[in-house]
Amino acid sequence: MKNIVRLLSVLALLAIVLAGTGFSAQAKPSGTVNVQILAVNDFHGNLEPPAGSSGRIGTINAGGAEYLATHIANLRATNPNTAVVSAGDMIGASPLLSALFHDEPTIEAFNQIGLDFNAVGNHEFDEGVYELIRMQEGGCHPVDGCLDGDDFGGANFRFLAANVTWQKNDKPIFPAYKTKSFNGVHVAFIGMTLEGTPTIVTPSGISMLNFLDEADTVNALIPELKQKGIETIVVLIHEGATQNPNTSPINSCVGVSGAIVDIVNRFDPEVDVVISGHTHQPYNCVINNMLVTSASSFGRVVTDVDLTIDRATGDVTAMAANNNIVTRDVVKDGFITALIAKYNAIAAPLANRVIGSITATITRTINPAGESALGDVIADAQLDATNDPGFGDAVVAFMNPGGIRADLTYVGSPAGEGDGYVTYGEMFTVQPFGNSLVTMTLTGSQIDTLLEQQFVGCGQTSNRILQVSTGFTYQWSVSAPACNKVDIASIKINGVAINPAGLYRVTVNSFLADGGDNFAVLKLGTDRLGGAVDTDALEAYFKVFSPVAPGPMNRIVQIP
Hints:
Helices cover 25% and strands 24% of the residues. The chain is an alpha/beta fold and 560 residues long. The protein has 2 domains: 32-335, Metallo-dependent phosphatases (Purple Acid Phosphatase, chain A, domain 2), CATH 3.60.21; 353-559, Alpha-Beta Complex (5'-nucleotidase,  domain 2), CATH 3.90.780.10. The longest helix has 20 residues, at 2-21. The chain is globular and about 80 Å long.
């Protein structure tokens, strides 16, 4: 009897242990299962086919959610064991059609596409963590409600955020990973953003969060996944690489470099596939024995990852990937066509309104000193909006180059406004973030520090030259050491050298004012005064100064 009791106890304990794994104690099946993973990244709300070079891969027109949906459906039809995933920046920095509605149309489009998982990227946090949670859970925006008249139901897919935790309890804001079963084989999908997210989004919207090291986060999850019997592990990460040259074929891995290379080399070898993003580059690599892919941006490419998995062990026995161009020669998805038409009808009166004119195309292309014609115009508009004593008394405005997302082209848009005219929609595409202006007081010495913080080794990993308003000039030296590239004597306002101890009123957008892009000195600014939204300032400038012409770009001077 004692032996029987002992045996029953052992069996009961075994049942408890097996139950804890989440999987049954059935005999392992034999054979293999072929799993297909379809991946995109950096869609950025591009529901309509992007214009110009942003809508091409090489010479091939590509992108558009109607076509992307069809390409994914066609690929999915080849294998019932398919997962559809995104490596972040699905939303944020979006064209007006999506951004005007807080990217709800993009979420609805990917619900239709049948997305399974989206790793959060930095742009998912553009409106702060609580707005991102609304994207998942649904409900109307707290400020301007549901502009389409319907309640927003949220995402049918899951956001993943393994390395983004609440400071109050160290728990992830979204699940660290999710699993999907294919003929009894469980595959884990871990999702995360780049650790450096706090430096490139408005800090106030994420001040309650921790952003953790990517490799440490993944490696810490491996034992948990192994304990659950999961052997196939896919990482969706919003960090990436570039090829050299960047014109390399989309399925090559030529001279690949960047943050993702270092991260992948630190991953536990149990990771099988890394689907990446952030750099807007296509590549198809094997790094550290892991498949590492990226699908360009704006829905122009979809990656098809094919895995052969041993059903008995759960291990990947073969893997391959192919980046496919999302051509526009397929039938459009009817649901998404109707979705785009619906939101275009609501947005058209605002988007097609003419706000001013230009004499020629004004681009964001920088000269060797780091200055662009469009950057000059935007900085001038922000100074014009804040130079009156009642609105800030500013003497200079600075604009971050990453906030300038498109050119202003002379050729008329499809709205039919005609050549040389600028519509609200075109202006919004240039500045889609909805930042407000902030005027603050800095000393001359702090302005010098601000300019030094533009360069590698003094706060930046690559040079990030601020655009400056009219009347502000300075020189910077290519050969000078980090944090000593700008001669303070060269910094002048209306031809007068600044006084290191003097006080100056400076205007920046709210992103920079919070120390965004690692311009930490701006957090020290005093006597802050909030101002207009950046697009309102630019619209007001065009109303007064049209036609606006591209300038000579001589405010910033580069010397040896």
